[in-house]
Amino acid sequence: MNWSQLFTSSIGKKIVMSVTGLFLISFLVVHMGVNACIYKDFFDPSDNGDMFNRAADYMGKTVVIRLMEIVLFAGFFIHIIQGLVLEFQNRSKRKLGYQVQMGNKGSKWYSRSMGLLGTILLLFLLLHWWHFWIPSRFTERGLENPVLLSNGRVSHDMFHLMKATFSEWWIVIVYIAGCISLAWHLMHGFQSAFRTLGLHNDRFFKLVNAFGIGFSVVVPLIFALMPLSFKMGWIG
Amino acid sequence: MTHKNINLKLKVWKQKNSKSAGNFETFVVKDISTEMSFLEMFDVLNERLIGEGKEPIAFDHDCREGICGTCSMYINGRPHGPWHATTTCQLHMRAFNDGDTIVVEPWRANAFQVIKDLMVDRSAFDRIIQAGGFISVNTGNAVDANSMPVEKDKADASFAAAACIGCGACVAACKNSSAMLFVSAKVTHLALLPQGSPERRTRALNMVAQMDKEGFGSCTNTGACEAVCPKEISIENIARLNKEYLMAGLTLEK
Ligand code: SF4
Ligand code: FES
């Protein structure tokens, strides 16, 4: 096997999807952890987003993390491109389809809809970048007033950018819809990644699958609560 | 279950040859015994068509006892019809009710071209087997079987995988037209036994390469294959093939 087969053979392509997918899952955990700092406000309103802003400041100013950001972009890029390639190649393998579809007899709708769910997530991701990443890195749109953090540093007030962004219902609803798509995408993707990497032992697979289901529910739920919490005035 | 006769409407795919377009034709069959197999129902219909001077419907069949894997019909949206772990030839008419309409289509996949009506060309499977689904044995006296210890669990798993009859239902059911369940059954069958281990790595690579060449899709672990497999080949085998492929790719010198 040579390296190009990773991108050309049927299993190679899946290995790439699975490795990048697991990497993106690890990113989700970090992203969720950092963002969950906004909930400090729920318990201590006088915090006024300080804990979250400090975490965001740390992520934005640390060299190693900025380098990892490049790897992250590469991960997204490969996962998206390879995913679309797979979807279109696989669809082309049956030129003439069936009159009566198999539907849910034997497989789950979300397992068959990874391309669709992934495309929804991609659109969501573009909106999400536009809302937060681009202002914080380039345009400073909505971040004109810096804050003085409790550690003495002056930084972007990401907390209030979130609050302003999530003051509109349509944005809150789009974000919740994005989280729901993420949940279904993970529901299949998490266990499938392990299958692709060769986990065939039933005992371990059951463990991974159970963990994956929990992960697919809990992580998107925590994310979905963020816009909702701002909109409902639970925080901020 | 009481025996009765039923009347049915069949919508069957008719196609002259691999070049022509093909379309559905409707046939009404009367007084079909619920004890008949699905193929016997087709025999009755074909007898009638021949008597009327019309062309019978072409379909593949051989053993009619669920072991050869040639019978291939996609019945009402499911390969081999509604029963679990059953080939078309073992499907009986008691699975249907009087007055039902049954839609019968051939396996659909670019790699399985329709030859005529419900018959498809599955020689792609043969070529995948030729690429590595074998063991090489030097001539001479056969070694005493008992001199080669095999762990019971492995022997059982290997045997379960060897039950694959190469029917192609897994490909027909898969949204990606992937042949991974078939290939994984064949690879697992040999990889778990000591006789298969010398060629273990090249086998996985070569069979997958041939599978790709034949135009099958890439597995996305949806599980539709496992659900329709008449021999209940487990999707676990696909994960095992993935492992075999990955290990071969990582450890082979070339
Ligand atoms: S794995 Fe099952 S469905 Fe696929 S060819 Fe073998 S017996 Fe048929
Ligand atoms: S005719 Fe042999 S398996 Fe059905």
What does this structure look like?
The complex is a heterodimer of chains A (236) and B (254). Chain A has 236 residues and is mainly α. Chain A has a single domain, classed as 3 helical TM bundles of succinate and fumarate reductases (Up-down Bundle), CATH 1.20.1300. Chain A is built from ten helices and two strands; from the N terminus they run αααααααββααα. Chain A has helices spanning 5-8, 10-35, 40-43, 50-61, 63-91, 109-112, 114-139, 158-165, 169-196, 202-232; strands at 147-148, 154-155. Chain A has a two-stranded antiparallel ribbon with strand order 1-2. In chain A, a hairpin with a 5-residue loop joins β1 and β2 (154-155). In chain A, α5 packs antiparallel against α7 (114-139) and α7 (114-139) packs across α9. The longest helix of chain A is centred in the C-terminal third of the chain and has 31 residues, at 202-232. The mean pLDDT of chain A is 96. With 254 residues, chain B is of the alpha+beta class. Chain B has two domains: 5-105, Beta-grasp domain (Ubiquitin-like (UB roll), Roll); 123-253, Alpha-helical ferredoxin (Fumarate Reductase Iron-sulfur Protein, Chain B, domain 2), CATH 1.10.1060. Chain B contains eight helices and seven strands; from the N terminus they run ββαβββββααααααα. Chain B has a five-stranded mixed β-sheet with strand order 2-1-5-3-4. In chain B, a hairpin with a 2-residue loop joins β6 and β7. Chain B is elongated, with a radius of gyration of 20 Å. The N and C termini of chain B lie far apart (61 Å). The relative contact order of chain B is 0.13. The mean pLDDT of chain B is 96. The chains are: A mainly alpha (236), B alpha+beta (254). The interface between A and B is large, with 43 and 53 residues. Iron/sulfur cluster binds next to α4 and α5 of chain B. Iron/sulfur cluster (SF4) is lined by residues 164-170, 181-182, 185, 229-231, 233 of chain B.
